[in-house]
């Protein structure tokens, strides 16, 4: 049995009933085989055995009182996976599906994503099975205060230890309440969270960063295919933060977004969710009224597709931006059959392994989430820098830095894929490129 096989079998044995974590580890470890064969030093130093084991896992109770005076209890998590290259960095997810396996998968992916940005950030993730949907502001505030009353114990001096951010279910409202609770508990104004409001230490471009970054990565990916993004038909899934700003940036770049979706279904607008009345309505629908995407279809008389994903719609580029494993084998085949030339993951691991295999076999340029959606954590890192320097950069400066980081990520992934014998395979390139920096740091720091 080979080195990767042995490590993966041990992961399955020690982490039962965590399929998302198993999927993420398997995808990364087996893609590293060309690198491990060339550099036996990583096996000698047991880097794989160490990198798949979190440095720290915390599970805690989160009691809070709802508006009816009833006591509710949720479970909180923080998994500090790897700090070899910098302080732990990774979002908090509030969603009823959250459990230890989801958090471990996200934290593991975050190690390599953060490494690819070139910024000194380690990998972590956290969250709770709390569902903020349908809760009043006061209920969300009470939950966040209770959550932070335990989490703060594990953050240390955040600039150097652990600096969480937002994720699904954790937007500006939740970040504000969490930051306020930390400030009260610790009597400190340090920027313990990123994604903060501009009034209290946030960065311009942070809400837009993941969607903008995915679009910038698509630009680089198309360049090596000698293609232009202008005029490209794009399918986008989701209707949250990533989908919103992917749609905005693609519009700015001259592409046309024809689909959006939520958990109830998708819309198909062949004329595009264009700037002006349509895009403004969509943003108001999701950011202000918190309505359903069906309302867009009703407002503009376009097709609403209940309980259907957008992957059977003809497109040039697909941006899965909703959740994990949303593109399955049949969806991938539909995209290939309809002439799709590029899939850019805005969400974390939205394509199943079978789907990814189909993309590679068909010659579709496939950008994995750890590369394509790293714009969010990149600007989180830039927010940390601004907080430490006690200053704020302009919108143009942050956007230019973000674009430069996404170009760097593409370069690292593209060149690593070439070097290790898998040209244009961004999965292998991103995994190896992210791994090498962390592995070298782990060796340099010794057995800790």
Which characteristics define this entry?
seven-stranded mixed sheet, 448 residues, globular, Rossmann fold, alpha/beta, five-stranded mixed sheet
Description of the molecule:
- This protein is about 50% helix and about 15% strand.
- It has about 450 residues and is of the alpha/beta class.
- Among the domains are: about 55-190, Leucine Dehydrogenase, chain A, domain 1 (Rossmann fold); about 210-370, Rossmann fold.
- It has a seven-stranded mixed sheet, with helices on both faces. Strands 1-2-4-3-5 form a five-stranded mixed sheet.
- β3 (about 90-95), α6 (about 100-115) and β4 form a beta-alpha-beta unit.
- α1 (about 5-15) runs antiparallel to α2 (about 20-30), α9 (about 210-225) packs across α16 and α13 runs parallel beside α14.
- The longest helix has 25 residues, at about 395-420.
- The model has no long low-confidence stretch (mean pLDDT about 95).
């Amino acid at each position: 049995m080979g080195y990767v096989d042995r490590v993966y079998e041990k992961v399955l044995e020690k982490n039962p009933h965590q399929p998302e974590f198993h999927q993420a580890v398997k995808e990364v470890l087996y893609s590293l085989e060309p690198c491990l064969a060339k550099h036996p030093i990583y096996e000698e130093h047991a880097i794989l055995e160490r990198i798949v084991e979190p440095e720290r896992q915390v599970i805690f109770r989160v009691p809070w009182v709802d508006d009816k005076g009833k006591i509710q209890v949720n479970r909180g998590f923080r998994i500090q996976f790897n700090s070899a290259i910098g302080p732990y960095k990774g979002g908090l997810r509030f969603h009823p599906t959250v459990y230890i396996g989801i958090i471990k998968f996200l934290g593991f992916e975050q190690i390599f994503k953060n490494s690819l940005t070139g910024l000194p950030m380690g990998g972590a993730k956290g969250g709770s099975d709390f569902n903020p949907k349908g809760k009043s502001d006061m209920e969300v505030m009470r939950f966040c205060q209770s959550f932070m009353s335990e989490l703060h114990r594990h953050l240390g001096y955040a600039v150097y230890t652990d600096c969480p951010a937002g994720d699904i279910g954790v937007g500006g409202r939740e970040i504000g309440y969490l930051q306020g609770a930390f400030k009260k508990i610790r009597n400190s104004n340090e920027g313990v969270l990123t994604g903060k409001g501009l009034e209290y230490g946030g960065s311009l471009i942070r809400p837009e960063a993941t969607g903008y970054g995915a679009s910038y990565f698509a630009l680089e990916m198309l360049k090596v295919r000698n293609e232009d993004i202008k005029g490209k038909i794009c399918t986008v899934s989701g209707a949250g933060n990533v989908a919103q700003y992917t749609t905005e940036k693609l519009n700015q770049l001259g592409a046309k977004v024809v689909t959006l979706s939520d958990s109830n279904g998708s819309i198909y607008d062949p004329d595009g969710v264009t700037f002006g009345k349509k895009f403004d309505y969509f943003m108001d629908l999701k950011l202000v009224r918190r309505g359903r995407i069906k309302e867009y279809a009703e407002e503009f008389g376009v097709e609403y597709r209940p309980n259907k994903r957008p992957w059977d719609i003809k497109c040039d580029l697909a941006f899965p931006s909703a959740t994990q494993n949303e593109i399955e084998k049949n969806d991938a085949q539909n995209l290939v059959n309809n002439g799709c030339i590029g899939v850019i993951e805005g969400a974390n691991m939205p394509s199943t392994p079978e789907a990814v295999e189909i993309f590679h076999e068909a010659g579709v340029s496939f950008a994995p989430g750890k590369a394509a959606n790293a714009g969010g954590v990149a600007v989180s890192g830039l927010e940390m820098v601004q907080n430490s320097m006690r200053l704020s950069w302009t919108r143009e400066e942050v956007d230019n830095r973000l674009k430069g980081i996404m170009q760097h990520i593409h370069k690292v992934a593209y060149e690593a894929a070439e070097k290790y014998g898998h040209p244009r395979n961004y999965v292998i390139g991103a995994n190896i490129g992210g791994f090498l920096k962390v592995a070298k740091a782990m060796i340099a720091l010794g057995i800790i």
